[in-house]
Specification:
Layout (H helix, E strand, L loop, with lengths): L17 E2 L4 H14 L2 E4 L5 E2 L1 H16 L4 E4 L3 H10 L2 H4 L3 H6 L3 E2 L6
Parallel strand pairs: 1-3, 2-4, 2-5
């Protein structure tokens, strides 16, 4: 079942497995204009580490998307990322429902071979 709230987005490979201080700017710079122009589901399956700077980057993207009238959600967070999001209460705001994971390809944050 398609959800009209989500629009198709291109797949983007950022090549990172950690969303931590010093790397969070790469995510924001790469996706800031995208979240302002369309709804985004970000696949965080490959991200094994996240810290406060990474959470702040996700909040920034969420805020930018909302201001532009779009949605920003996370699909397939790794176990560790899901645990951190649950601890700080962001899982209820940022994590996409399972059915949207199936029906939306979305943007992908994934590790690439070095």
């Amino acid at each position: 079942m398609n959800n009209p709230r989500y629009e198709t987005a291109e797949n983007v490979e950022l090549g990172i497995t950690e969303l931590v201080k010093g790397q969070e700017h790469q995510l924001v710079e790469r996706l800031e204009s995208v979240v302002r122009s369309q709804s985004v589901v970000l696949d965080l399956d490959a991200v094994e580490r996240i810290d406060a700077a990474g959470l702040a980057a996700l909040i920034t993207l969420y805020s930018d998307a909302c201001k532009a009238g779009h949605s920003f959600t996370i699909a397939r967070p790794s176990r560790h990322v899901r645990e951190i999001l649950q601890i700080v209460g962001l899982d209820k705001i940022l994590v996409a429902a399972p059915e949207s994971e199936v029906t939306f390809t979305g943007l992908r944050l994934q590790e690439t071979a070095a």
